[in-house]
Amino acid sequence: MEKQNTNSRGYNRGSLPPRKMLQGNWKCSECGKEITELPFEPAPDRPIYCRDCWRQKRSQRFN
What we know:
single chain; two-stranded antiparallel ribbon; about 15% helix; globular; about 60 residues; alpha+beta
């Protein structure tokens, strides 16, 4: 019998299940670009960023 390459939750190793996206109308705290979906419920006291600004901030943090 061939062993499947899955973890205990039944997902393929190295892949994550699809994330549920929250629909809404927000603006990026950095550039003001409209954001229509997020993978989380944003907190009112924390900034949110579009993909481009988030990538830029993340790459700056690791340099």
